[in-house]
Amino acid sequence: MSPGAETVFVGTIITLDPERPRAGALLVRDGRVAAVGDEASVLAGAGSDAARVELGGRALLPGFVEAHGHPTDSALVLSRYMVDIRPVTIDTAEGVMDAIRAGVADRPDGAYFNGWDALLQKGLGEPTIQQLDRIAPNTPLVIAHNSGHVAYFNTAAARAAGIDKHSKDPVGSRWVKDDAGELTGKGFEIGTLFALLRPMLATAQAELPSLLADYLASLNAVGITTVSDMSWDHAKTPLLNAVRERGVTTRMRLYEMSAPGSRASVDLENGDDLIKQVGVKTWADGSPWVGNILLSFPYLDTPATREVGIPTGSTGSANYSREQLDAIVDQYFPHGWQLACHAHGDRAIDMVLDCWEAMLERSPRDDHRLRLEHVGTMTPEQFRRAAGLGVTASFLIDHVYYWGDTLIDDLFGFQHGAAWANARAAIDAGMRISLHNDGTVTPAEPLRNLAVAITRTSRTGRVLNRDEGITLDEALRAQTLDAAWQLQADDIVGSLEVGKYADLVVLSADPYSVAPANLPSLTVDATYLAGEQVYQRVATEV
Ligand SMILES: [Zn+2]
Q1: What is the whole-number distance in angstroms between the Cα of residue 233 and the centre of ligand 1?
Q2: What b-and-e string marks burial along 302-340, b requiring 16 or more CB atoms within 10 Å of the CB?
């Protein structure tokens, strides 16, 4: 949009501004909301050559905010450099194994796969290094678990990445070894995965800016205009600079991965309204699907838990001790950084809350927006305690949709499984929350997030504790304004108010006009970043 250019949107406008939830017209000037209100008053303030967009039966909302994404990793993982075997792509164990054999045959220099999930792709079990060596005797073979919390690999992959039984565990991660001290072809946590992917990254490097630009465009296509990067690494700064030159279509808020003994790589004041590092990310525990979340109750003993190798009676594990967590938070929080901590198990959540409570006594701060990520088993009592400390939570609500049945039948039983990701309890405790899809773990699908948060229905139609559902008002806030608040961007985006950026999404209908279960069937017709159109649905898709 050229300087001074104006556009007026006329029709159904859902602002997310509590003072004026609905409006009939909105004026965009110089990339910002210049007026919002009834049609007559907004038109009175517009120039005579303002472009006019009639919404008709459609609805205009603030662009969606993905409060917990991994765009710089997802851009690579979903590119041609890795084979997509996610459960959202391939249903069966047989299909996964076929894809792996075909991938190894096609890619003799290194075959990299993402998305293994033996709970949904039943029958996969856990591969051993011997099995993977038989499939690929000479080709490096790496398989990332869909959660990102486990990597499987063969001997050639270890050799290519320079890893052997004497290699040190990466920070917060662990190479699994057998009784004789040999590598078993399994690594826990993201540090092992990155180490194994290093040879492939060297090849993909030159293409990363265009892969990231494509990925950001794919977020625009589902209405997202701001995304966080929860596994940010300062070494990727040249990548972001290259993408800036092409034109960034989605705002990014970066959370740098913590490391013992480290400091943040940039000053608190950094970046701009488009891209900015706002926080630091730590993983207190791992993934429910691989057994490494820290719980007060045991995993069930079922064929599924046996198949994925979760020991009978296991209550999981944490990635850090309390002492280690205390040391990590003190490297960052006293310097003003926001902290975000991945925690699924209720005991991991207690440990983080204990750590943060003590930290806030040492380094008091009023508006800290400390974030807990995913919080699968967090209890109502824990939400109340967290809210009292000013802690906020971000929910991977799609767990209920894709894994709802497995949570109850295979892993935790009804009491703990059906209560998964209890957004109702968080809001009732007084928290502002967000909904997210977590990079490649589930597809970026904000409209489905709204539906699942309201209906708590799995993809087989099973309802998990309907009374833990939230309202459409609450779900929309969690996907826009309150998500922006968590990213410290609510002063510039997240609602349609005068002075904020015109980050906008046009939906095919008013979301309040359809049954909650049908929200995912709405389409995103157009997306705007600072008044510039960054996505237009093509007519052939209609
Ligand atoms: Zn994540």
Answers
A1: 14
A2: bebbebbebeeeebbbbbbeeeebbebbebbbeeebbbb
